[in-house]
From TrEMBL:
Residues 2-67 form the Glycosyl-hydrolase 97 C-terminal oligomerisation domain. InterPro entries: Aldolase_TIM, GH97_C. It holds the Pfam family GH97_C. It comes from Mucilaginibacter celer. The lineage of its organism: Bacteria, Pseudomonadati, Bacteroidota, Sphingobacteriia, Sphingobacteriales. Gene3D superfamilies: Aldolase class I. This is Glycosyl-hydrolase 97 C-terminal oligomerisation domain-containing protein.
């Protein structure tokens, strides 16, 4: 999954994991903007169908994520 901010101001979105099958856990590898436009941050997060994750982005920034079942 991914998202791109095509604006010249920061923003945020939320990833709703309700589309995932119930009663299973998943590992999300999330690569998102860092503290400035030349940095990025990589996170590993356990998610389920009940989770909703806020993601912030820089101007002209974005994020990419990969989900795998645990």
């Amino acid at each position: 999954m991914g998202g791109i901010n095509g604006e010249n101001q920061p923003g945020q979105t939320a990833i709703d994991f309700g589309f995932l099958p119930k009663e299973k856990r998943y590992r999300l590898t999330l690569m998102a903007d860092g503290d400035h436009n030349m940095a990025f941050r990589e996170q590993y997060i356990t998610v389920t169908t009940k989770d909703n994750l806020p993601v912030k982005w820089l101007p002209q920034g974005g994020f990419a994520g990969y989900i795998e079942e645990l």
